[in-house]
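re the bet — no i am not wrong, look at it urself. input seq straight from the record:
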Amino acid sequence: MKSNGIRYQLGLGVALLGLVCLTSCRRSNGVGRAPSEKVPSWTLTAAPPINHLDVVAREPMIVEHSDGTLFVGGYGAAFMSGKKTDEATLWKSRDGGMTWARVNVGTPAQGAAGNSDVDLAVAPDGTLYFATLVYDDKADAGKQISVGMSKDAGATWKWVLLSKTRFDDRPWVKVTPDGTAHVIWNDGRGVCHAVSKDGGLTWVEEVRINPKGGSSHLAVGPNGEIAVRVIPLSAAGSKYDEGVDLVAVSTDGGMTWRKEPAPGYREWSPGGYFPVPRWVEPLAWDGQGALYSFWTNLKGIWLARSTDRGATWTTWRLRECPEVAYFPYLVARGRGELAATWFSGWTGTWQARTARIDVGEGEAPPRMVESAPFRPDSWQQNQKWPEEPQTPDPAGEYLAVSFLRNGGLVVVNPIQNRQEKRYGFSLWKLEERRGESPPVK
Protein backbone atom coordinates (compact mmCIF):
# COMPACT_ATOMS: atom_id res chain seq x y z
CA MET A 1 0.00 0.00 0.00
CA LYS A 2 1.34 3.46 -0.88
CA SER A 3 2.11 5.30 2.36
CA ASN A 4 0.75 8.70 3.25
CA GLY A 5 2.46 10.43 6.16
CA ILE A 6 -0.37 12.91 6.74
CA ARG A 7 -2.85 10.08 7.31
CA TYR A 8 -0.40 8.38 9.67
CA GLN A 9 -0.18 11.46 11.87
CA LEU A 10 -3.94 11.89 11.95
CA GLY A 11 -4.39 8.24 12.91
CA LEU A 12 -1.79 8.38 15.63
CA GLY A 13 -3.22 11.56 17.09
CA VAL A 14 -6.67 10.05 17.41
CA ALA A 15 -5.23 6.87 18.90
CA LEU A 16 -3.34 8.90 21.48
CA LEU A 17 -6.54 10.64 22.54
CA GLY A 18 -8.14 7.25 23.02
CA LEU A 19 -5.32 6.17 25.34
CA VAL A 20 -4.50 9.38 27.18
CA CYS A 21 -5.85 8.02 30.47
CA LEU A 22 -3.79 4.81 30.30
CA THR A 23 -0.53 5.44 32.14
CA SER A 24 0.63 2.00 33.32
CA CYS A 25 2.14 -0.66 31.10
CA ARG A 26 2.66 -4.14 32.53
CA ARG A 27 4.02 -7.19 30.74
CA SER A 28 2.53 -10.63 31.12
CA ASN A 29 5.85 -12.52 31.25
CA GLY A 30 5.21 -13.77 34.76
CA VAL A 31 1.46 -14.11 34.67
CA GLY A 32 0.33 -17.52 35.87
CA ARG A 33 3.62 -18.43 37.60
CA ALA A 34 3.95 -19.34 41.23
CA PRO A 35 5.66 -16.66 43.38
CA SER A 36 8.59 -18.98 44.16
CA GLU A 37 9.08 -20.30 40.64
CA LYS A 38 12.44 -19.58 39.05
CA VAL A 39 12.32 -18.37 35.48
CA PRO A 40 15.18 -17.98 33.01
CA SER A 41 16.60 -14.49 32.71
CA TRP A 42 16.52 -13.41 29.12
CA THR A 43 17.87 -10.34 27.42
CA LEU A 44 17.65 -9.14 23.84
CA THR A 45 20.32 -6.63 22.87
CA ALA A 46 20.70 -4.74 19.60
CA ALA A 47 24.16 -3.83 18.31
CA PRO A 48 24.61 -0.36 16.77
CA PRO A 49 22.89 -0.29 13.38
CA ILE A 50 24.67 -0.79 10.09
CA ASN A 51 23.51 2.04 7.81
CA HIS A 52 23.54 1.72 4.05
CA LEU A 53 22.92 4.99 2.19
CA ASP A 54 21.72 4.91 -1.41
CA VAL A 55 18.18 5.61 -2.60
CA VAL A 56 15.12 5.54 -0.39
CA ALA A 57 14.02 2.04 0.66
CA ARG A 58 10.56 2.35 2.12
CA GLU A 59 9.05 -0.68 3.84
CA PRO A 60 12.14 -2.84 3.27
CA MET A 61 11.93 -6.64 3.31
CA ILE A 62 14.86 -8.93 4.11
CA VAL A 63 15.63 -12.60 3.36
CA GLU A 64 18.67 -14.82 3.67
CA HIS A 65 19.72 -16.94 0.69
CA SER A 66 20.79 -20.55 1.18
CA ASP A 67 24.40 -19.48 0.48
CA GLY A 68 24.26 -16.94 3.33
CA THR A 69 23.77 -13.85 1.16
CA LEU A 70 21.35 -11.30 2.63
CA PHE A 71 18.93 -9.50 0.31
CA VAL A 72 16.97 -6.34 1.11
CA GLY A 73 14.29 -4.93 -1.16
CA GLY A 74 12.55 -1.58 -0.77
CA TYR A 75 10.71 1.04 -2.75
CA GLY A 76 10.41 4.77 -3.33
CA ALA A 77 13.41 5.60 -5.54
CA ALA A 78 11.30 6.69 -8.49
CA PHE A 79 9.10 9.00 -6.45
CA MET A 80 12.02 10.62 -4.65
CA SER A 81 14.02 11.19 -7.84
CA GLY A 82 11.09 12.50 -9.82
CA LYS A 83 11.79 10.05 -12.64
CA LYS A 84 8.96 8.64 -14.67
CA THR A 85 10.72 5.28 -14.85
CA ASP A 86 9.67 2.84 -12.18
CA GLU A 87 12.62 1.33 -10.32
CA ALA A 88 12.55 -1.99 -8.53
CA THR A 89 15.39 -1.73 -5.98
CA LEU A 90 17.24 -4.63 -4.37
CA TRP A 91 20.50 -4.85 -2.42
CA LYS A 92 22.70 -7.78 -1.33
CA SER A 93 25.35 -8.41 1.30
CA ARG A 94 27.82 -11.31 1.33
CA ASP A 95 29.44 -10.39 4.65
CA GLY A 96 26.55 -10.67 7.08
CA GLY A 97 25.18 -7.19 6.41
CA MET A 98 28.37 -5.21 6.98
CA THR A 99 28.50 -3.93 3.38
CA TRP A 100 25.85 -3.78 0.66
CA ALA A 101 25.73 -3.53 -3.14
CA ARG A 102 22.84 -2.74 -5.46
CA VAL A 103 21.56 -5.73 -7.43
CA ASN A 104 20.86 -5.27 -11.13
CA VAL A 105 17.41 -6.84 -11.39
CA GLY A 106 16.83 -5.70 -14.96
CA THR A 107 14.98 -2.81 -16.60
CA PRO A 108 11.29 -1.93 -16.79
CA ALA A 109 11.41 -2.99 -20.45
CA GLN A 110 12.50 -6.45 -19.23
CA GLY A 111 9.64 -6.51 -16.73
CA ALA A 112 11.53 -5.31 -13.64
CA ALA A 113 8.99 -2.65 -12.70
CA GLY A 114 8.08 -1.65 -9.18
CA ASN A 115 7.81 1.53 -7.13
CA SER A 116 5.76 0.40 -4.14
CA ASP A 117 5.07 -2.70 -1.99
CA VAL A 118 7.69 -5.47 -2.26
CA ASP A 119 8.24 -8.94 -0.86
CA LEU A 120 11.07 -11.47 -1.08
CA ALA A 121 11.25 -15.25 -0.71
CA VAL A 122 13.85 -17.98 -1.17
CA ALA A 123 12.95 -21.49 -2.31
CA PRO A 124 14.60 -24.65 -0.91
CA ASP A 125 16.69 -24.92 -4.10
CA GLY A 126 17.94 -21.33 -3.72
CA THR A 127 15.62 -19.68 -6.24
CA LEU A 128 15.08 -16.06 -5.21
CA TYR A 129 11.69 -14.41 -5.76
CA PHE A 130 11.02 -10.65 -5.80
CA ALA A 131 7.38 -9.48 -5.92
CA THR A 132 6.71 -5.84 -6.78
CA LEU A 133 3.85 -3.38 -7.17
CA VAL A 134 3.66 -0.47 -9.62
CA TYR A 135 1.72 2.41 -8.11
CA ASP A 136 0.26 5.39 -9.97
CA ASP A 137 0.77 8.30 -7.59
CA LYS A 138 -1.47 10.65 -9.58
CA ALA A 139 -4.36 8.19 -9.69
CA ASP A 140 -3.67 7.16 -6.07
CA ALA A 141 -3.99 3.50 -7.06
CA GLY A 142 -1.83 0.51 -7.88
CA LYS A 143 -1.81 -0.73 -11.44
CA GLN A 144 0.54 -3.71 -11.82
CA ILE A 145 1.88 -6.78 -10.00
CA SER A 146 5.09 -8.45 -11.21
CA VAL A 147 7.37 -11.13 -9.84
CA GLY A 148 11.04 -11.65 -10.62
CA MET A 149 12.93 -14.92 -10.29
CA SER A 150 16.68 -15.55 -10.02
CA LYS A 151 18.30 -18.99 -9.91
CA ASP A 152 21.84 -17.66 -9.45
CA ALA A 153 21.55 -15.60 -6.25
CA GLY A 154 20.56 -12.40 -8.01
CA ALA A 155 23.03 -12.43 -10.93
CA THR A 156 20.36 -12.83 -13.63
CA TRP A 157 16.59 -12.40 -13.55
CA LYS A 158 13.42 -13.45 -15.34
CA TRP A 159 10.30 -11.32 -14.78
CA VAL A 160 6.64 -12.25 -15.22
CA LEU A 161 3.66 -9.88 -15.24
CA LEU A 162 0.96 -11.33 -12.98
CA SER A 163 -1.65 -8.58 -13.18
CA LYS A 164 -2.16 -5.22 -14.84
CA THR A 165 -5.38 -4.01 -13.24
CA ARG A 166 -6.33 -0.72 -11.65
CA PHE A 167 -6.32 -1.04 -7.83
CA ASP A 168 -3.75 -3.87 -7.79
CA ASP A 169 -2.19 -3.76 -4.34
CA ARG A 170 -0.11 -5.47 -1.60
CA PRO A 171 1.60 -8.50 -3.18
CA TRP A 172 3.21 -11.21 -1.04
CA VAL A 173 5.34 -14.14 -2.21
CA LYS A 174 6.17 -17.35 -0.32
CA VAL A 175 7.49 -20.80 -1.30
CA THR A 176 6.33 -24.11 0.17
CA PRO A 177 8.84 -26.87 1.05
CA ASP A 178 8.18 -28.69 -2.25
CA GLY A 179 9.34 -25.61 -4.19
CA THR A 180 5.92 -24.33 -5.27
CA ALA A 181 5.80 -20.52 -5.28
CA HIS A 182 2.66 -18.64 -4.27
CA VAL A 183 1.85 -14.95 -4.79
CA ILE A 184 -1.23 -13.18 -3.45
CA TRP A 185 -2.48 -9.63 -3.98
CA ASN A 186 -5.76 -7.70 -4.05
CA ASP A 187 -7.48 -5.41 -6.53
CA GLY A 188 -10.55 -4.13 -4.68
CA ARG A 189 -12.55 -7.18 -5.77
CA GLY A 190 -11.03 -9.77 -3.48
CA VAL A 191 -7.77 -11.62 -2.86
CA CYS A 192 -6.01 -13.00 -5.94
CA HIS A 193 -3.67 -16.00 -5.96
CA ALA A 194 -1.11 -17.20 -8.52
CA VAL A 195 1.02 -20.37 -8.39
CA SER A 196 4.23 -21.47 -10.07
CA LYS A 197 5.40 -25.09 -9.96
CA ASP A 198 8.38 -24.68 -12.30
CA GLY A 199 10.57 -22.28 -10.38
CA GLY A 200 8.84 -19.08 -11.46
CA LEU A 201 9.05 -19.66 -15.22
CA THR A 202 5.27 -19.85 -15.63
CA TRP A 203 2.40 -18.87 -13.36
CA VAL A 204 -1.24 -19.94 -13.14
CA GLU A 205 -3.80 -17.66 -11.52
CA GLU A 206 -6.11 -19.74 -9.37
CA VAL A 207 -9.63 -19.00 -8.15
CA ARG A 208 -9.71 -16.01 -5.81
CA ILE A 209 -9.12 -16.85 -2.19
CA ASN A 210 -11.94 -14.53 -1.16
CA PRO A 211 -14.28 -12.32 -3.23
CA LYS A 212 -13.87 -9.41 -0.81
CA GLY A 213 -11.16 -7.87 1.32
CA GLY A 214 -7.43 -7.23 1.17
CA SER A 215 -4.29 -9.37 1.04
CA SER A 216 -2.92 -8.49 4.48
CA HIS A 217 -0.36 -11.30 4.79
CA LEU A 218 0.77 -14.72 3.51
CA ALA A 219 2.56 -17.51 5.38
CA VAL A 220 3.53 -21.10 4.51
CA GLY A 221 3.99 -23.98 6.94
CA PRO A 222 6.49 -26.84 7.23
CA ASN A 223 4.16 -29.33 5.56
CA GLY A 224 3.03 -27.08 2.72
CA GLU A 225 0.19 -25.42 4.61
CA ILE A 226 -0.76 -21.95 3.37
CA ALA A 227 -2.37 -19.25 5.49
CA VAL A 228 -3.69 -15.93 4.17
CA ARG A 229 -4.86 -13.03 6.29
CA VAL A 230 -7.84 -11.24 4.72
CA ILE A 231 -8.87 -7.83 6.09
CA PRO A 232 -11.62 -5.29 5.25
CA LEU A 233 -9.23 -2.88 3.52
CA SER A 234 -8.04 -3.28 -0.07
CA ALA A 235 -6.98 -1.24 -3.10
CA ALA A 236 -4.62 1.00 -1.09
CA GLY A 237 -7.41 1.72 1.37
CA SER A 238 -9.90 2.97 -1.21
CA LYS A 239 -12.14 -0.09 -0.74
CA TYR A 240 -13.59 -1.21 2.60
CA ASP A 241 -15.61 -4.41 3.04
CA GLU A 242 -17.27 -4.26 6.45
CA GLY A 243 -16.99 -7.48 8.46
CA VAL A 244 -14.29 -9.16 6.35
CA ASP A 245 -11.70 -10.17 8.96
CA LEU A 246 -10.59 -13.76 8.50
CA VAL A 247 -7.81 -16.31 8.17
CA ALA A 248 -7.95 -18.60 5.14
CA VAL A 249 -5.99 -21.87 5.27
CA SER A 250 -5.27 -24.36 2.49
CA THR A 251 -3.70 -27.79 2.83
CA ASP A 252 -3.91 -28.73 -0.85
CA GLY A 253 -1.71 -26.12 -2.46
CA GLY A 254 -4.38 -23.45 -2.69
CA MET A 255 -6.99 -25.50 -4.54
CA THR A 256 -9.46 -25.15 -1.67
CA TRP A 257 -9.59 -22.87 1.37
CA ARG A 258 -11.12 -23.12 4.83
CA LYS A 259 -11.97 -19.69 6.20
CA GLU A 260 -12.38 -18.85 9.86
CA PRO A 261 -12.81 -15.56 11.74
CA ALA A 262 -9.49 -14.04 12.78
CA PRO A 263 -8.74 -14.45 16.49
CA GLY A 264 -9.22 -11.44 18.72
CA TYR A 265 -10.66 -8.00 18.17
CA ARG A 266 -9.45 -5.09 16.07
CA GLU A 267 -10.78 -1.59 15.64
CA TRP A 268 -11.36 -1.32 11.88
CA SER A 269 -12.42 1.73 9.91
CA PRO A 270 -12.34 2.89 6.27
CA GLY A 271 -8.86 4.12 5.44
CA GLY A 272 -7.25 1.91 8.09
CA TYR A 273 -5.83 4.65 10.32
CA PHE A 274 -8.45 5.29 13.02
CA PRO A 275 -8.16 4.74 15.90
CA VAL A 276 -5.15 2.43 15.38
CA PRO A 277 -3.23 2.44 12.07
CA ARG A 278 -3.60 -0.97 10.36
CA TRP A 279 -2.64 -2.79 7.20
CA VAL A 280 -0.40 -5.83 7.71
CA GLU A 281 -1.92 -8.32 10.18
CA PRO A 282 0.88 -10.91 10.29
CA LEU A 283 0.65 -14.69 10.37
CA ALA A 284 3.52 -17.15 10.91
CA TRP A 285 3.94 -20.95 11.04
CA ASP A 286 6.56 -22.45 13.32
CA GLY A 287 8.59 -25.55 12.47
CA GLN A 288 6.07 -27.84 14.16
CA GLY A 289 3.07 -26.63 12.15
CA ALA A 290 1.54 -24.29 14.73
CA LEU A 291 0.03 -21.12 13.25
CA TYR A 292 0.40 -17.75 15.01
CA SER A 293 -1.39 -14.42 14.71
CA PHE A 294 0.02 -11.21 16.21
CA TRP A 295 -1.90 -7.94 16.50
CA THR A 296 -2.44 -4.78 18.50
CA ASN A 297 -5.57 -2.94 19.59
CA LEU A 298 -6.57 -0.28 22.10
CA LYS A 299 -6.41 -2.85 24.89
CA GLY A 300 -2.91 -4.17 24.28
CA ILE A 301 -0.56 -6.37 22.26
CA TRP A 302 -1.86 -9.85 21.49
CA LEU A 303 -0.68 -13.24 20.31
CA ALA A 304 -2.77 -16.26 19.33
CA ARG A 305 -1.73 -19.82 18.44
CA SER A 306 -3.63 -22.47 16.53
CA THR A 307 -2.54 -26.11 16.55
CA ASP A 308 -5.36 -27.17 14.22
CA ARG A 309 -4.61 -24.99 11.20
CA GLY A 310 -6.72 -22.02 12.20
CA ALA A 311 -9.86 -23.82 13.33
CA THR A 312 -9.42 -22.84 16.99
CA TRP A 313 -7.07 -20.47 18.78
CA THR A 314 -5.51 -19.91 22.18
CA THR A 315 -5.08 -16.18 22.79
CA TRP A 316 -2.76 -14.27 25.15
CA ARG A 317 -2.42 -10.58 25.89
CA LEU A 318 1.33 -9.99 25.97
CA ARG A 319 1.07 -6.49 27.36
CA GLU A 320 -1.96 -5.18 29.21
CA CYS A 321 -2.10 -1.51 28.29
CA PRO A 322 0.75 -0.23 26.11
CA GLU A 323 1.09 3.18 24.59
CA VAL A 324 -0.29 3.45 21.08
CA ALA A 325 0.95 0.30 19.31
CA TYR A 326 0.54 -0.38 15.60
CA PHE A 327 1.96 -1.99 12.42
CA PRO A 328 2.96 -5.38 13.92
CA TYR A 329 5.09 -8.00 12.17
CA LEU A 330 5.93 -11.60 13.11
CA VAL A 331 8.18 -14.51 12.11
CA ALA A 332 8.49 -17.99 13.63
CA ARG A 333 10.71 -21.07 13.62
CA GLY A 334 11.41 -24.26 15.61
CA ARG A 335 8.92 -25.04 18.36
CA GLY A 336 7.20 -21.81 19.32
CA GLU A 337 10.19 -19.51 18.72
CA LEU A 338 8.89 -16.13 17.56
CA ALA A 339 10.26 -12.68 16.81
CA ALA A 340 7.95 -9.67 16.62
CA THR A 341 8.17 -5.98 15.81
CA TRP A 342 5.82 -3.01 16.05
CA PHE A 343 5.81 0.77 16.40
CA SER A 344 4.61 2.72 19.41
CA GLY A 345 3.88 6.32 20.31
CA TRP A 346 3.52 9.28 18.01
CA THR A 347 5.58 12.33 17.03
CA GLY A 348 7.80 13.05 20.07
CA THR A 349 7.40 9.59 21.65
CA TRP A 350 7.54 7.52 18.46
CA GLN A 351 9.72 4.38 18.65
CA ALA A 352 10.30 1.04 16.98
CA ARG A 353 10.14 -2.09 19.15
CA THR A 354 11.45 -5.62 18.79
CA ALA A 355 10.71 -8.68 20.94
CA ARG A 356 11.52 -12.38 21.20
CA ILE A 357 8.68 -14.62 22.27
CA ASP A 358 8.80 -18.26 23.35
CA VAL A 359 5.55 -20.21 23.41
CA GLY A 360 5.45 -23.43 25.42
CA GLU A 361 3.00 -26.29 25.50
CA GLY A 362 -0.65 -25.95 26.44
CA GLU A 363 -2.10 -22.62 27.52
CA ALA A 364 0.83 -21.41 29.64
CA PRO A 365 1.53 -17.72 28.92
CA PRO A 366 4.35 -17.08 26.46
CA ARG A 367 7.63 -15.54 27.63
CA MET A 368 8.36 -12.23 25.90
CA VAL A 369 11.46 -10.07 26.19
CA GLU A 370 11.95 -6.76 24.39
CA SER A 371 15.12 -5.09 23.24
CA ALA A 372 15.58 -1.41 24.01
CA PRO A 373 13.33 0.64 21.70
CA PHE A 374 14.99 2.64 18.96
CA ARG A 375 14.08 5.49 16.64
CA PRO A 376 14.60 4.86 12.92
CA ASP A 377 15.95 7.75 10.89
CA SER A 378 12.73 7.98 8.88
CA TRP A 379 10.69 11.16 8.59
CA GLN A 380 7.78 12.64 6.70
CA GLN A 381 8.07 16.09 5.16
CA ASN A 382 4.97 18.23 4.90
CA GLN A 383 4.42 18.44 1.15
CA LYS A 384 2.13 21.45 1.43
CA TRP A 385 4.45 23.38 3.74
CA PRO A 386 7.95 21.98 3.12
CA GLU A 387 9.49 24.62 5.38
CA GLU A 388 7.80 22.99 8.38
CA PRO A 389 9.91 20.56 10.49
CA GLN A 390 9.87 16.90 9.49
CA THR A 391 7.81 14.53 11.63
CA PRO A 392 8.67 10.90 12.50
CA ASP A 393 7.20 8.38 10.08
CA PRO A 394 7.41 4.56 9.85
CA ALA A 395 8.02 4.85 6.07
CA GLY A 396 5.90 1.76 5.57
CA GLU A 397 3.44 -0.44 7.38
CA TYR A 398 5.67 -3.01 9.10
CA LEU A 399 9.20 -3.42 10.41
CA ALA A 400 10.78 -6.49 8.79
CA VAL A 401 12.46 -9.02 11.11
CA SER A 402 14.13 -12.30 10.20
CA PHE A 403 15.79 -15.27 11.89
CA LEU A 404 19.12 -16.19 10.31
CA ARG A 405 20.43 -19.68 9.66
CA ASN A 406 23.23 -19.23 12.20
CA GLY A 407 20.66 -18.51 14.89
CA GLY A 408 20.91 -14.74 14.72
CA LEU A 409 18.09 -12.24 14.46
CA VAL A 410 18.03 -9.10 12.29
CA VAL A 411 15.69 -6.16 11.81
CA VAL A 412 15.75 -3.76 8.88
CA ASN A 413 14.22 -0.29 8.81
CA PRO A 414 14.16 2.50 6.20
CA ILE A 415 16.30 5.62 6.29
CA GLN A 416 14.21 8.47 4.91
CA ASN A 417 15.53 11.88 5.90
CA ARG A 418 15.03 14.45 3.17
CA GLN A 419 16.24 17.32 5.32
CA GLU A 420 19.70 15.74 5.71
CA LYS A 421 19.58 14.02 2.30
CA ARG A 422 19.93 10.58 3.88
CA TYR A 423 18.20 7.65 2.19
CA GLY A 424 18.62 3.90 2.42
CA PHE A 425 18.13 1.41 5.24
CA SER A 426 19.52 0.31 8.60
CA LEU A 427 20.25 -3.28 9.64
CA TRP A 428 20.07 -4.13 13.36
CA LYS A 429 21.58 -7.36 14.68
CA LEU A 430 20.05 -8.63 17.90
CA GLU A 431 21.66 -11.00 20.38
CA GLU A 432 19.87 -13.24 22.87
CA ARG A 433 21.38 -14.10 26.21
CA ARG A 434 19.83 -16.50 28.69
CA GLY A 435 20.60 -17.46 32.25
CA GLU A 436 18.75 -17.97 35.50
CA SER A 437 17.14 -15.18 37.44
CA PRO A 438 15.93 -14.99 41.06
CA PRO A 439 12.36 -16.16 41.78
CA VAL A 440 9.55 -13.99 40.44
CA LYS A 441 8.11 -11.85 43.23
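see?? The domain at 5-410+419-434 is CATH 2.120.10.10 (Neuraminidase). told u. also The mean pLDDT is 88. so pay up
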